[in-house]
Amino acid sequence: MRKRVVLFSFLMIVTQIVLFSQDDKVVMKIGNENINLKEFVNTYEKNNDLKKTSEQELREYIDLYVNFRLKYAEALSLRLDTIEELQKELNGYRMQAARSYLTDKEVNEKLLDEVMERMQWDVRASHIMKKLPLEANPKDTLEAYKEIINLRNRILKGESFADIAAEKSDDFSARNRYNNEGKLIQRGNKGDLGYFTVFDMIYSFETAAYAMKVGEVSMPIRTEFGYHLIYLHDKKPALGRCAVSQILIAYPENATAEDSVKTKEKAKEAYKAVKEGMDFATAVQRYCTDKGLTERKGEMPIFTVSRFDGDFVENIYGLNVNDITKPFETVYGFHIVKLTDRIPVEINADARAIAKNRIIKDSRSEKSKEAFVERLKKEYKFKEIKTKNSFPALEDFYTIDSSFIIGKWKADAVSSWTKPLFVLADKTFTQKDFAHYLEENQYEGSENVNLDELIKYFYKDFVQEVIMDYEDGMLEKKHPEFAGLMKEYHEGVLLYELSEQKVWKKAEIDTIGLKAFYETVKQDYLYPVRVEANLYTFSDESVFNQWNKLLKKGTNPAEAMTKLNKKIAVVSSKNLVRWKGQEASFDSLFHWNNWNQQIQSTTAGKNTTVTMDYKSEQQRMLCANKTALSFLEVIEFKGPSPKPLEEVKGIIVSLYQNYLEEEWIKTLRSHNKVWIDYDAILSLIK
Question: What's the average model confidence in pLDDT over 473-496?
Answer without folding.
Answer: 93
